[in-house]
Amino acid sequence: MAKMQIEGLEEYTKAIQRISENSDVVIVNSVYEGARIVADDMKAEIKKITVDNGIGSEKNKLDGISALQKADLIDGFGVAPIKVDGDYTNTKLGFSGYGRTKTKKYPKGVPIQIIARSVNSGTSFRKKNPFVQRTVNRIRKKAQQAMAQVIDEEIKKEMK
């Protein structure tokens, strides 16, 4: 009768248990790394938006945004705290806060979300510049690979 002996099985089992116990931390670190990559690329994309300090109209639409609005978009973009909700670990990337340009309608300043949407979707006085979709489509795979790499590195550390 054949006999099989596996050495180190107990150590292997302990390593797998350590990975399982630390999985929440590993996943949160992975999600944070993916969000960081997308956020950095989004800020770089915002910096590429053309500066146009003119006044737009339906016939002569603006091709960009003012330098102040551009700075507000960069400052107002960020990553929300990571939430673990059951089996899901999530974060959100987006715009929050108010710009420095105050108007009669927005005495605290124009909400940065409105500025971002007007640039991304276009308005009656501004040309469409879909910078959000462009960034997400370009960086999605790189972010996924970085997240997988974080998980792989943590597994390799525990298996040593």
In short:
It contains five helices and four strands.
Describe the structure.
The protein has five helices and four strands, in the order αααββββαα. With 160 residues, the protein is mainly alpha-helical. The strands form two sheets. A two-stranded antiparallel ribbon has the order 1-4. The protein has a two-stranded antiparallel sheet with strand order 2-3. β2 and β3 (88-90) form a beta hairpin. α2 (23-48) runs antiparallel to α5. The protein is elongated and about 75 Å long. The two termini are 34 Å apart. The model has no long low-confidence stretch (mean pLDDT 87).
Tell me the layout of helices and strands:
Layout: H1 9-21, H2 23-48, H3 67-76, E1 77-79, E2 83-85, E3 88-90, E4 93-95, H4 112-121, H5 131-159
Antiparallel strand pairs: 1-4, 2-3
Which terms would index this structure?
about 160 residues; mainly alpha; two-stranded antiparallel ribbon
